[in-house]
Design a protein that fits this description.
single chain, alpha/beta, 2-enoyl-CoA Hydratase, Chain A, domain 1, Lyase 2-enoyl-coa Hydratase, Chain  A, domain 2, six-stranded mixed sheet, four-stranded mixed sheet, 11 helices, 17% strand
Length: 258
Amino acid sequence: MAFVDLEQRGSIGILTMNRPEALNALNDQVLRDLDAALDAVEANDEILVVILTGAGRSFVAGADIGQMKDFTSVQAKKFGAYGNGVFLKLENFPKPVIAAVNGFALGGGCELAMSCDIRLASEKAKFGQPEVGLGITPGFGGTQRLARIVGVSNAMELILTAKVIKAEEAKEMGLVSHVYPAEELMDKAMELAQAIAANAQVAVRQSKAAIRHGLQTDMYTGAAFEAEAFGLCFSTEDQKDAMTSFVNKDKVTSFKNR
């Protein structure tokens, strides 16, 4: 995984997009490395929550224009399909993923951030889908996720004008949850990750899956999925321990995650 670093800090896994000389631009190899890194994190039972960030002054500045400029239509469709596949894998990853957006998140970088569950941004971060200014559409899910996150009107404006926005504006429209000074971003991301990791992980993962599933379907189907998740949790030791402690006016201090 030459272009994606994996660091483990206790129960938190930190994935760093590490191609700083190209502002972490996404090419075939970077996407393959991210795909492999996700497999490694999923296989590591000690990692409960993931933080995704970028090396240097960029989160991910976009897809690699140098690689894409001579694509045929067939090659472009194949590249887009592969990138979309990796980002869908990230979106539906069983463990929660926090994007710590430290700099440029443009094009494929904005799409990568949107594939994560929670987005935090540095004051230096910038977001945008500038593809139409290059004669193409967003290709890694931007036309689909952006409207779901910020609403149709905001998504249309951002994509059709190709404009780039600062972190505070991204927060105002709901693209990110919080904006922090650059030097505080990773500490705040770790704080959030640890708060998630402190809870019962079967319930955490079932909650994430229910939210993701519900976003893709109608309320009735989503509610049925939630009922299944709710019921499943009652087969866990964590539910028994936590509810028994609550009834006894006590509190569980750690979970078995089973």
